[in-house]
Amino acid sequence: MSETVKQILDRLYPDGYLGRLGKVYTDTSDFMRITGGDVIVLAGEHYLVLRDEVERSFGVEDPKYWVKRCRHLESGERRILKLVFYETFSLSMGDMKIPCYRSPRKEARILDLVRNDPRFMQGFPAADEAGNNVRVLYVVQGKRLDNWIDDLDVDHPTYFQTHLPGILEKFIVSCQAINDLHKMGEKHGDIRRDHLWVTYDTGDYVWIDFDYTFNFHENPFGLDIFGLGGLLLYIVGKGFYSHEEVRQLIDRNRKIPAIEPEDFLLVFKNRLANLQKIFPYIPDAVNQMLLHFSSGSRVYYETMDEFLQDLTTCLKQVK
């Protein structure tokens, strides 16, 4: 006879949980039904579901019902379970439409490839009784890089002189990690500012979330490089600057040169790429690298080796 949640908790986690007692799931196909208080069983291990994960963006919480924050009952440690969920969408890059999709198998593959590499989140795939490819992830003890940068209570000139060199040094290590992934024939697939974390203990950077992928025939790894370009823009600018924010800066400082549409990013057209126009002390090499990702660019990075070479030059310019 199968155990109930109460019996499992009494056996593995006595006196450790006072919430709702739900159901035991060995098949995670209907992930919308699985909620706090349920227990998921994978390969004989038991995971008490605490809640659904949420993605926070622009002050809004977006539930991710297929991602469960759990307690691994055998160890008492926190885990994140990513259940099987498929979706597709297109990303616009200029006149091109790039098909993107979620692939649990791809993420499971990368978890195996980067095992014990501290530059990436760690975990392992485990099939449930229905054959669903569940990814069991260890929680990164840290903070999103963008939030870490936001919390630096200094103006941009001070940030640029004092903090940026150290951040760029660690960012180069993270870019080398993506280059290594590409050389293994894999891509991250969803590089953005909330997918690079700073660990509390070492301050090193860790990539998370590998389940997106894309078909970009012109450059198989191109979206990863554009993602890194957007992240570099955030790092150099200590944030993004929208049309409205740029207009406010111009209203306060009439010496700012005219801002043109080609000064903004190619992919996210409301983010200023030509930062030298509002921060004239940014070195030419740094600004030229950012302009590679602008709407006005006619030359783009083909490989991570090219990107890293210019990024190393940028680091020398800001030190």
TrEMBL record:
> What domain of life is recorded for the organism?
Bacteria
Q: Which SUPFAM superfamilies match?
A: Protein kinase-like (PK-like) (SSF56112)
InterPro entries tied to this protein: Kinase-like_dom_sf (IPR011009)
Q: What is this protein called?
A: Serine/threonine protein kinase
- What species is given as this protein's source? Desulfotignum phosphitoxidans DSM 13687
